[in-house]
# Entry
Amino acid sequence: MITVQQAEELILQETRDFGVEIVLFDEASGRVLAENIKADRDLPAFNRVTMDGIAINYQAVANGITTFRIKATQAAGVAPIEITELNECIEIMTGAAMPGSVDTVIRYEDVAIEDDKATLLITGIKKGQNLHLKGADKKQGENILVPGQLITPAVISLVASVGETELRVKRLPRVIILSSGDELVDVNATPAPYQIRRSNSYMLQAVVAQQGIKAAVKHIPDDPEIIRQQLGLCLQNFDVILLSGGISAGKFDYIPQALADLQVDQVFHKVLQRPGKPFWFGKHHNGVVVFAFPGNPVATFLGVQRYFIPWLKASLGLAPSKTVYAVLDEDITFRPPLEYFLQVRLLINEQGRLLAIPVEGNGSGDFANLADTDAFMQLPLAKSEFKKGEVYQVWLFV
# Structure
């Protein structure tokens, strides 16, 4: 049996690149960029006005002129209007291109306008104020985005601004989610007293959907031959297999043997943690990786959050999620020699400290608590007594 840290290291050794594909820019949110994006012109492309007001030539102020004749009004998106005399100004709007004959913008709040004349109400005007200068952000031909960046709404805006309509992005892995167990029935079925509805599959599907992956879902019965056949098909058609159930030491837990028969190399089986100790991880020679989580709902939920998501981010070239720590808000005792992932609800107190309030349930089969919690707090196996006020890492639910 290995530690949580060892399991993480072994899993991250099996990351892989799934290649690239081209998608429309407005469908690329949440994907990972796989190319350089360059500015097709200076950003901004012109000296851009940043305040509604009047535009003047600063030399007029230097010469003591304080009242200006309004020559015209210029909106954003129209050709610049020039002045010909120092005592002239242009009423100008935010976003407009600054005419070449003027160089300073004074806000409406700082002038009085009457009879087509604008009089300054303030002193201390600075040359070039209220302007966003051409090329101040990026010069034409410079990279504005580089491979490995997560495509966020802000990135979409930037991409659109330089006229890119298609993007090369990292291809996502093909994922299938398999549940097993004859005690499981369809969601729309009425279970017998000894049965339960399938839920883990849909939870896993929802988690990976938040990563942009539309996973296939299938249920397999507790039949060794069917399990072997179905896993064999999955190894041919998918990049990742997420399994829930059938991997412990019970007489009907056929999956580890089926994986061995199909030449999926076991990297490890069982981790010193609770929940989720029976966790199995392996890799086929064709590159397919298998995450086989215990069937208990909380254990499955922990497994996909703690192991699959970090593996996926690493495979796509994304930086790991930021490490988050919180202050334990109650004393906790946990004596088994296992790393304990405690369900917690998080809140920020008046001092700005992130507090973790334990929400202890009835073991890894009690998944009702997950709806009322925000994270798992990782309590190290080296201790059994955890005191209020101590700080530990938390894994936020995605």
